[in-house]
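Re: that chain you flagged

S.,

Sorry for the slow reply, it's been a week of failed gels. I finally had a moment to sit down with the sequence you sent. For the record, here it is as I used it:
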Amino acid sequence: MDNFQISSPDASIILDINLIDHKLSYSVKQDGQEKLGHSTLEIFENGKVTILGAKETESDSTWKPVWGQHSSIRDHFRELQLDIDFDGVAGKLLARVYDEGLGFRIVLNEGEKPKEGNFKLTYKLPDGSNYYFPKGETEPVGPVNYNGLQEVLKQGNGKKPKISVPLLVELKDKSYLSLLESDLFASTGIGSMLLGGTDQTDIVSSDNKVSMTKEEWKSPWRVILLGKSAGDLVVNTIPVNLATPSQLENTDWIKPGKTLWDWRVHGYTAPDGFVYGINTESYFRFIDFAAEKDIRYFLIDDSWYKHATEGHFELSEKLDLQKVIDYAAQKGVELILYYDRKHGEYGDEKLFHYYNSLGMKGIKYGFMGNDVEFTKSAIQKSAESHLLIDFHDGPVPFTGISRTFPNAITREYCHAQQDSRRAFTPESFIKMALINAITGPLDMNNGNFDLTGINSGLRQKGPKETNSYVSTVVSEAARTVVIFSGLVCIPDAPEAYAAKADLFEFIQKLPVGKWDESHVLHSNISEYISTARRHGEEWFVGSVYSQKGGTLDISLDFLEEGKQYEVTLYEDTAETHGKTNPEAYQIRTQNAKKGDLIKAVMAPGGGHCMWIKPVE
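Prediction finished late last night. Pasting the structure tokens below so you have them in one place:
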């Protein structure tokens, strides 16, 4: 038999797999509508495939992540296993279908194999689709049609340009689809997934050459997510369900949380005349504020050392690091320390042990590049030294790794607000919140409050162009809940937060990472997003609008029936504007119950926050 069909548990998704002329092909329908037409799958280029047997199973279980967008995750799927001869190599194809998408994995048995393979899928998407995808630390690309996508791919200066995952696809019926991968950890000898185009208007996973050995080999899961809205894909649990379960026996030391950060504050002048810089006194001020506001971490960025050589750091004379470490310990604040491979090589074999010996709780790792095996090793070594790890500067997406190694707390797979200093628009934020965030937690550094000062050029590392940072302080607060991360890095000065202490309360109360459930209530790419997250009986809702400004009707249907709640609303005012008056805001409270409607009115480039708690 060469034709197989398997459906999702609720029968809404149907996957057909066929063997035609010894080549594997597949197609996908949802609710009777074709989502992917005749598409192909192979592991050895132009290899001959023979199907030897088939087995269908169903699994329904629940597991609890160490931290995440949901405290309990259901893993319910149907799986088709095809025993296959891949051009003389025995193995199997696993096709796992969920109610919200599906994944493919190839497993090759032990034994002789060609030295090199090429795990390649094509994706035949419907005509008339719009495409969106990340573009490093600049605004994501899109919407573009297929011809526009091909134009992007031609801009490679003689190289073979590829598209980073996820590829987000808006279909003609306004439903959404995303292409990405999960569980890269379980695979060896393969780079992270990239995408390209073909002459037949298909999308194709790139020439991702696989180095083969005699051992059993697993591919990553190639994942197709389906949703009625773009926001559905951001909270889809399929990528973490497909990831290898936690490899850590003890995870008690892994604590998600908020962190203050020094890097974007340099040059800020406090009301008492103190000017922040890379020095001991500045860091004492951060630590004092973190202790006062119950912020778990303080992140010390670059320039605490001048150069690194094998097993040795040449410390900067600008600050007394040991004094800072001792002071933080005295105040009960935990430290995370940056490491930049461009400034010399300490050596990863010793690096993580050294950070642990300093009493650090985490490492912010910069400039490791898109190197899968190196990144995998760094995650494992940091776990051995009980260190959280936050990857920066073009990291591997590594979707699902937070399940496998929960110490992989976040990564800068985005424009981290001021980091590249060139993508400051609300539209770029909303796109990243609906595109990049599909791959998992993002370290985006939201939460600037001194927007006027930043825009005027008073910071050493503010925008390259003055008055180019478009946002409002309420939008900045909202972004801290819209973007999911195990480490929420808030980048402004303690005094900037103290001056707006009533608004800062929203950020202060956020139970970072330990969410019981998460929902994207409204989503429109580059226009708006509204996200609700629950911790215990409390809800935090954040909404952000483009430079058009607008109103979202937020239904409180997610509240518990029969309970009364107090809602604290943090709002733009009628005078607020993301360019001309970014720091105007108002706060009010009202009572509410399940089913009530809140009108979230947002200024151009503005936002809206709600903290909802039961009435005692």
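What I noticed first: The longest strand covers residues 49-63.

Talk soon,
D.
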